[in-house]
């Protein structure tokens, strides 16, 4: 892959595997035996051939350490390689293909096989002639073991002669493709992605044998072979749900499978075997414990719909294992300054391979890890060709950028100390600014302070770096202040001098442009000085002594009640003289009147006066709009007069309140001169009440008289106008009484019923009972409420309070008399009789044979029965043709059809009827016709 820029060779689980740039290079040792390099990389028993009798021990060691390539740490493999060298092993490296994943698909024939090519890391494998099959005689050689006739082998073409270790080969059924296969078909590795995606119909890629092996010839992987192409059937390697296996076979040794995974009910399970149906199931190498693909613990099965990952790693651990088989350039790109010394390395390259480098600048060399110095700036593709010396090769590359640096940054102008931060921009970008006041990519004048500052810009790209400097001046703001005033200032109107310090020609708030000005009044004065960086200012508050300004205030209210006093407070001077003769800032007075004070200080004197007035107690009245309350009513109460500070006993502070409950309500109220209290009494007026003492409803027997009693509060009367508390009643109805007063009306009522002993009905269920049967019966009446009791003709009894229903079991048919007794609990009683009719049971008989031979004995096929109603019957021959039908038990069949006697044989019939209770029955049977 040439001319790549910024490429990424990382890989992630779920993506097609591409080379990863690990920083670990793992190579296996060579040794010299008889002058020839020997590569110890075999992991399959029997794959080494001894060159002489002394090598038998080496073969034994390899056979007993099979699969150690991935099942032991790589450091141990170095030890094993050294041991094999010492034993004199010859170089017999051959291709190795492992099942990595296969699936029965989510339904139909959405199957696929995913193979991984193993071998020395970065090496080439010759797959020509290798065999892929489902179950063969390795796991049972008989019909029913899932052996599908035929197998697939990699065609004897150049495409399979140089397949890189770590390649994934995905083979799928194009007639019903698995939906998880999303990548396009890719028959070669021309794009260096280590991935082959082939339908079984890929023209010329595979040879197909449709006959062997089969259940009769087991492990025979012979031809004839036909080249694959459009229409090639998947059946030769199709997977069975009940049990099957996925396996690869080395063409040099077809007596054993090279690698196999089986499932389901195969008779001789493979070392990696899963029980249960393979329907919609996926099987995958999960590398759970190690990279040993022959250890069942490293395999997993799951749902095809969620676990299928054709053409991709099965999980992160599986991805790392596959990646460890591949060789690749460790660096995607390098950047540096000329002269640039680079180190380029091919990771995972087995030392049986040759790496030839073209650095892109006219120089080249050999080696899996090389150093090269680029003398001039430029962009280069360092291309490496990896080959095995037998015609197999591929290329990879790294991009090298060689450059130089010249650090600069924009010129800087002088700034004032109060200026905003200055943005710094360096070239080339990515460098760092340093210096006093620098923060990131900005210079802050306020932090650096006035003066000259040196700033530096340093940048590093790859192994290139450069530094440049500039100076920047920070200008200060002008400084100005007002000289301190003396502590003893004169009275208002006497001149005072203000002096500015720190600069020439300052400007004052008076408009004067002088170092010194003269003022004669108190106030705020400022002075300002301006330069190119701005304006500075200072200010002073001048407080000259003021002439006195007399004022009087109250310590408390300005008006007093009889017997009270008030304190007067004077201010505005240093000395005080009151009209009362007192010489203090405050005096206490006991009467209303006008009071004056004269205040003085060193600047003069001033006088003022104040009036004290008298206050009186305010009159009041307390009233309510009602003094009695019914339940739910509200009274309005109010305190008139004032103004007052008010507090009611219910917490209200307003002059008026609303009262909803009877009781005593007090109010406390205050004005400036007194605090007083008063009360209101609100009485309760009870609501009217009436209660009829008897509980209803009450029941009367015909001709009976009862007495109703009532208690009440208020004006009472019954609904007939009588006012006595007792009332005589002899008929049914609703009787009402009520009572009234000012709070409203109360009433009560009672219902009196008359027991109706007429209209009682007897109900039987079922109405047409057939013995033996349980019959439910009920006395129906809307008005009956009391005790019910039944007596049958045989003396048995049944009864339950307030339960007019009962049931009775009858063994035989007949007529049964039932006596009914009712007592309503109020002296009213009723007695009646009813007749229950129980029918005899239904019986029916079907003969199983008859002989219509004219001897007047059993000449007619006829059904007998009692209690049978709406009987229907049909006769059929063995082909279902209707021969005869009739209704009623009095008819039958004489063994003829259309007047012709039918032959001896068995004839079918169907029938239906109802019994005496209306229940429907139907069925089928057969009868034998004899002659």
Q: Mind describing the biggest β-sheet?
A: 7 strands, mixed
Q: What is the rounded distance between the termini?
A: 98 Å
Oligomer: single chain
Low-confidence spans: 1-12, 17-93
Mean pLDDT: 82
Quickly count the helices: 6
Give the DSSP E fraction (strand runs of 2 or more residues): over 45%
Short description:
By secondary structure, this protein is mostly beta strands. Helix content is 5%, strand content 45%.
Could you characterize the architecture of this molecule?
The protein is mainly β and 931 residues long. 5% of the residues lie in helices and 45% in strands. The radius of gyration is 61 Å and the shape is flat.
Defining traits:
disordered N terminus; 931 residues; 6 helices; seven-stranded mixed sheet
What topology does this entry show?
Blueprint: E1 30-33, E2 36-39, H1 56-64, H2 68-71, H3 74-87, E3 96-103, E4 112-118, E5 124-125, E6 131-133, E7 151-154, E8 163-164, E9 168-172, E10 195-199, E11 206-209, E12 226-227, E13 243-249, E14 259-264, E15 272-274, E16 281-285, E17 299-303, H4 304-307, H5 316-323, E18 328-329, E19 333-337, E20 340-347, E21 354-358, E22 364-366, E23 369-374, E24 378-387, E25 393-403, E26 408-409, E27 415-416, E28 422-423, E29 426-427, E30 432-434, E31 438-439, E32 442-443, H6 445-448, E33 451-461, E34 464-475, E35 481-482, E36 496-501, E37 507-508, E38 516-519, E39 523-531, E40 534-542, E41 551-555, E42 559-560, E43 566-571, E44 575-578, E45 586-589, E46 593-601, E47 604-614, E48 620-624, E49 628-629, E50 635-641, E51 645-648, E52 656-659, E53 663-670, E54 675-684, E55 689-692, E56 698-700, E57 706-713, E58 715-718, E59 726-729, E60 733-741, E61 744-754, E62 761-765, E63 769-770, E64 773-780, E65 787-792, E66 797-801, E67 805-810, E68 814-823, E69 829-839, E70 843-845, E71 849-850, E72 864-866, E73 869-876, E74 882-887, ...
Parallel strand pairs: 9-10, 14-15, 19-25, 27-34, 42-47, 49-54, 56-61, 63-69, 71-78
Antiparallel strand pairs: 1-2, 3-4, 3-16, 4-9, 5-8, 6-7, 6-13, 7-11, 11-12, 13-14, 16-17, 18-20, 20-23, 21-22, 21-24, 24-25, 26-29, 28-32, 30-33, 31-32, 33-34, 35-36, 36-38, 37-39, 39-40, 41-43, 43-45, 44-46, 46-47, 48-50, 50-52, 51-53, 53-54, 55-57, 57-59, 58-60, 60-61, 62-64, 64-67, 65-66, ...
